[in-house]
Amino acid sequence: MKVPWDKLAESPKVSESLVTLLMLRLREKARAVDGSGGDGGRDLFEYTEDGELVVYEAKSFTGRMTQVRRRQVVRSLVSAARHQPDHWDLLVPIDHNPAEERWFEGLREQFPFVRHWHGRSWLNEKFAAHPDLVRYALQESGDYILERIAEARAERDVLLGGLPDYIERANTLQARVQEISPHYAVHTTLGADGQTVVHLTPKRPALDGQAAIRFTGRIRFPAGDPQEAQRRRQYEETMRFGGDVELTADNLAEAGLAGPAGLGLEQLTLGGVRITSPHQEVTPPLRGQMIVQEPSGLPVTSLPVTFTHRVLGTDGGTLHGSDLTGLMRVQVRFDRRDLSGQLKFSFEPPEAAMPTAMVPVLRLIAESHPGRFMALILAGDTNGQLRAPVTTGMTPRGWEAGEAGFWADAYEDLARLQSRTGQFFPVPDDFTQQDVREVKEIHALLDGEKIVPRGESMSVEVVSAEGLDKLADIRGGMFRLTAGYESMIFTLGDHQIDLGPCTETYTMNKILNMKEARREFAEHGHATVVMRLAEHIPAVRYLGAERPE
Length: 549
Prior knowledge:
Blueprint: H1 5-8, H2 12-26, E1 30-32, E2 44-47, E3 53-58, H3 67-81, E4 87-91, H4 98-110, E5 114-118, H5 120-128, H6 131-139, H7 142-156, H8 163-177, E6 184-190, E7 196-202, E8 214-217, H9 226-241, E9 244-248, E10 255-258, E11 272-276, E12 280-293, E13 299-312, E14 316-323, E15 328-335, E16 340-347, H10 355-367, E17 373-378, E18 386-389, H11 403-421, H12 433-446, E19 457-462, H13 465-472, E20 479-485, E21 489-492, E22 495-498, E23 502-511, H14 514-524, E24 527-533, E25 540-543
Parallel strand pairs: 3-4, 4-5
Antiparallel strand pairs: 1-2, 2-3, 6-7, 8-10, 9-11, 12-13, 12-17, 13-14, 14-15, 15-16, 17-18, 19-24, 20-23, 21-22, 23-24, 23-25
């Protein structure tokens, strides 16, 4: 069956699609490109068994290869060159004459991958073995032929070899997709709803205007919706100073994307866009000091910080850092337009930390309240400091006013106790206000002071009838009990601190349960005697074995 090339040339899409369908029959590994929005320089391509990329260019030209047509071929070669093919073949129903052959040979000087010109005779020979394809062209519409190409493409996407085929194809696609654009790295993931998520990451920090990805049209944020108002603020801040924002399909209903040739962004139907500023590492890290100041400039407390990365926007950028422990995160936003800055802090209580690490951060939180100023001084910066009024307190959510200062004092006392006893451990998970009071009492004991145990009564365990009788003989008046301990053990969480010998002295004026104690002793051979402490003579506890006179 003869192919009516001149008639087919009246509909270039049909003619070129027919040639594409033929090559899919002839070349087992060939893949067709959906050219509905531009083929990016590849009508049809294949990767050979040797891993070579072959690009086939189908043209519907008939007659002679005029200058206009030659320019079209060159433009196709330029597009194909972006993919760095190993070979490029022209498929066109024209048998070249000597002049056209010389022109084609000359293309190899500029494009070394140019290989074959398959003309009308070659195409007719191949179609003779596949007359059904010609019938498609004569009897069906161009859309029908495109459907057959889609079917052939789908058939070749069947993973006949199972997972090995999938892995091979995935690796090949991953390698080749990086060649789409020299400016962006590309990878894909599946979203929570099963949708395909494409991640575009700049391959270098600074991109020129031609490489930028741009929104075209309008981005809309419906009025009257607080969530959309917040999204708009976040979008504007991300654009101006860097950051992260996610836009929904509703926001993008009147907008599209445009970018470097080859990405095909204009063809995408956007279900959502997440914009994330690339983090640029600050090398070496930028060190500084956060200082809480009185309005006069007098420093109150300070915290060393280190900035490790930054993000940039159209009007400025944001420095990201933390204190040396990582408990306090710091953001410094700078605006190039008015040379202003803004400080933001976030505090995350750790699961475990040494008390010494907690104190500087808690001091900064406790002392940062409206009426004072926060200053940032960067190491090596001789041009002054970034200084701003504290507009809101830094007390973490759920904490009471003054609680940060309380815990700063508590952790400082605990750290000092660890240093005095030589036992170091993280702050216990169940470190309570009662523990805080006991730590203060232990410091007093270690300083040689006598402390007053709390309570209105005391209990002693009696293990002999003689001892119980002696207590029962006391009739009115006061009596003193001195107890000596070989060692006083202070328990804090899972840790115990031995403070050494300890002495306690109690003055009592009444036994509260003698009858019950005698009955208990008769039944069990021991009894607990409860005695009331004298109000005007407090009990005393101190370290050491020396007894009072």
